[in-house]
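Example 3.2
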Amino acid sequence: MEKFDLVVIGGGISGCAAAYIGAKLNLKTLLIEKNNFLGGLSSGGLVIPAMKTDCGKINTEFYEKLIGEAKKFNAQITYKDGNRGWFNPELLKIALEDMLINSGVKILYETIPYDIIKFNNKLIGLKIKTKMLSLHIYSDYFIDSTGNSKIFQLLDEEFLNEKNEKQASSLRFIMSGIDIKKFEKFITKVDKDRNVTNSAKIGDEIHLTTAYTWDNKNWGLAPIFKKALENGDLEPFDTAYFQIFTIAGAKGSVAFNCPRLPDYDESDPYSFSNSLIEARKSIFRLSNFTKKYFKGFENAYISNIASITGIRDGNRIIPKEICTKKTLYSGKLPKRAVLSGDYPIDIHSNSKDKSTLEKTGKYYLSIDSLISKNHPNLLCAGRNVGADYMAHSALRTQISCMSMGEAAARYVKDMIDLYAQEQNFL
């Protein structure tokens, strides 16, 4: 039997933050990850860059450390708008491992929890399966950063699925072999809207971003997509959402924040898989489209398709205090703030003109939105945050998720120290 102070389940960016901070605070920390790498959607999902938000100085130690660590591996740039979260997804896996191992975190890859262990109705351990064998591990505290609340599911907890509506999911991909200089000259001429299409010289490399959706808006790229549809080079749903970014340390490559997955029925075991199959067909069409219609893409090729689906929502826990849209708009600073931010309410819909991008102003999240209502030694961190549908769409971004993980670990440390003080007093 092995006993820990803190067990973090899920090695995405929020789980990495929780484990790193836990170990730095001298907690004996274990990180359990189902894949064979760290970073989750930030690496395996190719979700780059991290969306910019005003995180202030609330629980940002991990983020600051990650930026410095990523620089060592040529895996980070700061874009001209001040966004420091332009990472290289593959190199991020190495940077994260380096950070966590050096901090003292123990990592179990390709490991999944399959049952919980209770004593007097308290969560005290997990039954886990590794590639080699099954184990029982015990801990004082647990942080579920699995995205879909795996530990809460094993505990048969209810979730905040208060809306039937679901955000659209995406399957990202990367193309390489691009003449970026040629493409920049072409794309900035086609689209004059610098809020959509812009570029910057950073070091000796050109970086850029551009976008288009099928929603009614004066998109600069609209004539190109219209022509591709008329010629049969794209299908209508391929044009629902199109966005690309260059990648730190990957000259000649761009990451695509698309295509979206067609809607799937969660009650049908084949429906999700069929959506993924259709998305990969869309990737092939989009890659051929760029080669035909974008200058600089003539010799480009698909170099990576995300190994993790970009799911934007999931099982949100019922916490001690639910964060709502009203909470965000209030701008009220709680007694113990997890994070600060100003990323907008951002809902992706598979229906035309149904997506939402709504500014909120500066907001904060309370630690009580991360603590289980029924299990005080169980917290969440990441996109399973205890928030309603609208608030969740603003909180789910990577920088905020890092702050959640960090805050959860700091809370665990404080609770363990408080218990030790009480025992000493007795």
